[in-house]
Amino acid sequence: MRRSHEPISWSLFGAGGMLLAFIGPGLIVSTLLLAWLVQDPQALHATLSSGLQHPLARLAALAVIALPLYHTAHRLYHGLHDLHITGPTWLLGGFFYGGATALSALCALWLFSL
Amino acid sequence: MRKPWQPQQPRDWWLHNPAYRRYMLREATALPLMLYTLLLLAGIFQFSRGEVAFAAWLSWMQTPAALLLQGIALAAALLHAVTWVALVPKILVIDSDRLRIDPRQVLRAHQLGALAGNLGLVVATLWLLWPAGGA
After folding, report:
1. Are A35 and B62 in contact (CB under 8 A)?
2. Do B70 and A44 touch (CB under 8 A)?
């Protein structure tokens, strides 16, 4: 039998869902507050830069982008099926899971070249 | 000739039942949340390009279109958090001979965790923004 990708995609979906439930609303409120109340964007850039010096902080930032990407890609992929929008599996799966993977790789590149 | 049974499901199957509509709304939270994540990713890119690009991203996040998307994303994130935490005790069933945990306690722990995580993040952001904090 061909091996299924479901265990991997569901684990990433589950991790992303848990992350979004635990910090999603707070994260959105935080970025709204940051953009609205920031007095000195340069100082904020410096503060965040020094925070992101630690590799674990970069890893955390990557998780905050990558896991929600996989979570939402998984839901939208299966949502298309619910809406009776069909297509070749390699195309739809490649678009959603491949897109999430490519964007996560870009995010890792940007974060770890800081 | 073989005539296999073809299950017929109308395309609007979910529209006529409140439970299915709630299910579709829950699944639909993924779209604004994905768009918001892309905004954040753009922010990381601009951050990596330097202070000027980062400041431009911060002020762009205050444009009406970006605020509208963030408002919808916030509503979606709240609905996601509530429905997700409610489902956890049904998926995370800890019921073996060695360890048994009441599903109500699993639910309570995740509710407290979600509350602490979200509120903690907002408090940390306000602390970062406090004038004495520098930013």
Report:
1. yes
2. no
- Walking along chain B (135 residues) 10 residues at a time, the average pLDDT comes out as 84 95 97 98 98 97 98 98 97 93 96 98 93 55
Residue B95, SS3? strand
Give just the sign of the alpha carbon dihedral A30, A33, A35, A41: negative
Question: CA A16, CA B80: separation in Å to the nearest integer?
Answer: 11
- Our CA dihedral for B68, B71, B75, B77, rounded to 10 degrees, sits at 110
B118 touches chain A (CB under 8 A): yes
CA separation for the pair A6, A24 (Å, rounded):
24
| Cα–Cα dist A105/A62, whole Å | 9
Which ipTM was obtained for this model? 0.95
Q: How many CB atoms lie within 10 A of CB B130?
A: 11
Question: What structural domains and CATH numbers belong to chain B?
Answer: 13-72 (1.20.1300.10)
Q: Which residues of chain B are within 8 Å of residue A25 when distances are taken between CB atoms? A: 74, 77-78, 81, 118
| CB contact B114 to A (< 8 Å) | yes
* Domain with residues A6-112, CATH architecture: Up-down Bundle (1.20)
Instruction: Name the β-bridge partners of B95.
Output: B100
Q: Which pLDDT score, from 0 to 100, does residue B34 have?
A: 98
Q: How far apart are the first and last CA of chain B?
A: 76
